[in-house]
């Protein structure tokens, strides 16, 4: 099986290498096809997202990706936004679950954040009207709203979940979120056995802080989803442990929620678990369910044992020690 590998920037190469090692130790043979993207690619290929990289994903359909650095406020547009739009990876899926051994204020969090990945303010359509006045277009289309809400409901059905919460700000953004809400209600009608609720995004933030266990599947537009994903990661142990997938009708790119972490890059300190669990989601997607489950179990055993953990998890270990522990626990 061929899978495209985008190592990315910062801690990307360190954490994707750990995932490759663990997949191999789990007995799955993958022929990795390296592809460039990120700040590094801008330097080596003169382009942060070379067309060749998109073509490789179009050819092989599936990619595992490390984080890519996007300079703030200047230079090129976010590679992630372009990649997701270029391949129409319309659904960002982030399972957020309490992990054994990871100390957090909550014990039973088990929710999935489904984020629309191609529109909203992240369409990146900004322009200067006159100096000192900038406009940003919030693009919302019926087609994109319907398919992301339908994806959330289908996911609920497929994974035995019972409730979908649509998060919006339709009282203020009456036309854009008004349309999204209208679409959500229409799609919800097709799923009478799944409970549907609509909530203001600010209210959802409050309730996530007070009691995240009451949520099941959350679906929302792009910017809200980006913020809520990080918030939810914080509920279960931080950015180092939460996996993610960007899925479309034809292609899938698996990556952690976290970024390139320039503050710890190159030091061997990064926690690879988020990318390892993203890789497990990838294995599940390509039909290697048993290996995916084995890796998930090995990660949980490692966290529970608390040996070799990285600093973000309160340990004194590093990327190499935690990787070795996960591999050791594959047999457990
Ligand atoms: P970040 O996620 O890279 O880092 C935030 C904090 O979390 C830092 O203190 C970092 O050390 C820590 N952290 C993140 N991942 C970790 C891990 N695996 N193990 C241990 N600690 C970890 O977010 P930041 O600093 O806002 O972004 C840095 C760069 O990453 C930016 O250029 C941003 O555009 C990019 N980025 C890329 C993403 C992607 O490619 N999917 C997603 C988010 C950000």
What do you see in this structure?
This protein is α/β, with parallel strands linked by helices. It has two domains: 201 residues, Isopropylmalate Dehydrogenase; 102 residues, no CATH class. It has eleven helices and twelve strands. The longest helix has 17 residues. The protein starts with a strand and ends with a helix. The model has no long low-confidence stretch (mean pLDDT 95). 1,4-dihydronicotinamide adenine dinucleotide (NAI) binds next to loops.
Mean pLDDT: 95
Radius of gyration: 19 Å
Low-pLDDT windows of residues: none
Sheet with most strands: strand arrangement: 2-1-3-12-11-4-5-10-8-9
Helix amount, in percent? 40-55%
SS elements, strand count: 12
Decide which structural class fits the backbone. alpha/beta
Please report the number of helical segments.
11
**What's the domain count?**
2
What would you call the shape? globular
Distance between the termini: 26 Å
Features:
332 residues; alpha/beta; Isopropylmalate Dehydrogenase; 2 domains; ten-stranded mixed sheet; two-stranded antiparallel ribbon; binds 1,4-dihydronicotinamide adenine dinucleotide
Give a quick precis of the structure.
By secondary structure, the chain is an alpha/beta fold. The protein has helices spanning 12-25, 39-45, 51-60, 79-86, 142-158, 176-189, 201-210, 222-235, 273-285, 289-305, 319-329, and strands at residues 2-6, 31-34, 62-65, 91-97, 110-116, 126-130, 133-136, 163-168, 195-200, 217-220, 245-247, 252-255.
